[in-house]
Every structure is written in structure tokens, then in C-alpha cells.
Specification:
alpha/beta, Alpha/beta knot, Trp Operon Repressor, Chain A, 2 domains, 5-stranded parallel sheet, two-stranded antiparallel sheet, 9 strands, about 35% helix
């Protein structure tokens, strides 16, 4: 997959794109990630990419011309992919959306800055707007890094194990089960025996139950859309009743 990142601060990506899993995937040719500096495409004398907003107001707005020129330089006439603006009004990035985007041949990520981007650039250069959450960043660069990392994990060959993205948090709508490594006993705390049993079916069942427990404890909103069988739903309902009865008993014991 090819991913072009349009930004006025390409130096922000130097380290993230050269380290760890992303860096290795680029070296192996699995990922083709390129940073495109928008500034050289400006027709202004001093290569400005922003100007004051019409109507007044604080801050500056990125101009349409250099963005359009930079976008045209990486898409061309036979572009097959998706042009994305990292902005607050877009749909929220999820694991499902990341998986969907990983099927594209080519992604172009536009990083806004300052007070935003001239709407005419968004109307002519963007297919989709995506947000990584309801908070404010100084620019779209950090958001682009998050999207790049989330999407790349679903591209074959990027991760060391082809099963990894399917077993991690949110892959099936649930949080991930607890993880353990050596030693089996550390400071008096032991690894659950089932993980040492070598019984793969029991291990899978334990992990699934632990994922359901973790999601109920920390992100109950995810359970509404999570993929669960009727048996799993019944098990979870029974476990929740036990938890509530236990909590109620402890509360009554404290008050007595």
C-alpha cells in the first residue's frame, strides 16, 4: 500500500516512520509511505501556505491553492484510492474503519494546521474526513500518525504474526484479555493455571471470557455492538448477576 502524507511539517514524521514496525515494513517494501511538503507548491513569493480568514477572527487558515497543487502531484489522472482530511467533523476512527481503509491501494492524508483549511480545498481535494477523537490538537500530523499506525496493522506482512490484529483490543468489538509472560510467579502473584496447561481450547475460552469481563468493567458501551454468540451472552449475563450480587453483599456487610 502507498500512503502519502501532505503536511507543512514533514520533519515531524522522520522518527515515527523510521522506527519499530512501521520502519521495518517500509524497509521490506510492504509499506510505501511518503511525506509531501505542501510549502513548495505555493505560488506565493515567500511560499506562504496560510492567510488571514475572510470575515475576521483569530489565527490563520491554510490556503486552497498549495493544497490542491500538492494533492494533484500525488494523485494524477488515474488515482485509485482515497483522499482523507484529518479533521474534527469527520467520522471517528475505529478498528473497523481502519480495516476498511487497509483495503485501499493508495491513501492520501491531508494534515490541517492553524485554524483550519479553506473549505474550497476540502470540497475539491478530499473524499472523506476522519477524526481520531473529541479533543483539540495543534495540527493534523499527530492524527495522521495514529491513522497510519491503525491502518498498517491490517496490511499483510506488516505485523510479525498474521493473527495479531485479530486478537487485540476492538478487533471483534471487545477489549483484549489480560496478558502474562515469565516468570510464572512474580512477587507472589501467579499466572492463571489455564495459560500453563497447554490446552488450547481451554485457553481460547478463558481469553474470550476475560475479554468479555474487561469490556463490561471498562467499556460497557462496546458490548451493545460486540460480536457475541447466544451462549456468550448468556454466560456474560450470569457473570454480571454474580458480580452484582457480590458487590451488594459486600456493601451490606460494610454497612452492618
Amino acid at each position: 500500500m502507498r500512503i502519502d502524507i501532505l503536511t507543512i511539517f514533514p520533519e515531524m514524521f522522520t522518527s515515527p516512520l523510521s522506527c519499530s514496525i512501521i520502519g521495518r515494513a517500509r524497509e521490506q517494501g510492504v509499506l510505501d509511505v511518503r511525506c509531501v511538503d505542501i510549502r513548495p507548491f505555493s505560488t506565493m513569493k515567500h511560499k506562504n501556505t496560510d492567510d488571514y480568514p475572510f470575515g475576521g477572527g483569530a489565527g490563520m487558515v491554510m490556503m486552497a491553492q498549495p493544497i490542491k497543487a500538492a494533492m494533484d502531484s500525488v494523485t494524477g489522472e488515474n488515482f485509485r484510492g482515497k483522499r482523507i482530511y484529518m479533521g474534527p467533523r469527520g467520522k471517528t476512527l475505529t478498528s473497523a474503519l481502519a480495516r476498511e481503509l487497509s483495503q485501499e491501494e493508495h491513501l492520501v492524508l491531508l494534515c490541517g494546521h492553524y485554524e483550519g483549511v479553506d473549505k474550497r480545498a476540502l470540497d475539491t481535494c478530499v473524499d472523506e474526513e476522519i477524526s481520531i477523537g473529541d479533543y483539540i490538537l495543534t495540527g493534523g500530523e499527530m492524527a495522521a500518525m495514529v491513522l497510519l499506525d491503525a491502518v498498517s496493522r491490517f496490511i499483510p506482512g506488516v505485523l510479525g504474526s498474521s493473527e495479531s490484529p485479530e486478537e487485540e483490543s476492538f478487533s471483534d468489538g471487545l477489549l483484549e484479555y489480560p496478558q502474562y509472560t515469565r516468570p510464572s510467579v512474580w512477587e507472589g502473584m501467579a499466572v492463571p493455571e489455564v495459560l500453563l496447561s497447554g490446552h488450547h481450547a481451554k485457553i481460547r475460552a478463558w481469553r474470550r471470557e476475560e475479554a468479555l469481563k474487561a469490556t463490561w468493567r471498562y467499556r460497557r458501551d462496546l458490548l451493545e455492538k460486540a460480536e457475541m454468540t447466544k451462549k456468550e451472552k448468556a454466560w456474560l449475563e450470569a457473570w454480571i448477576r454474580d458480580q452484582e450480587n457480590t458487590d451488594q453483599g459486600e456493601a451490606e456487610g460494610t454497612c452492618s
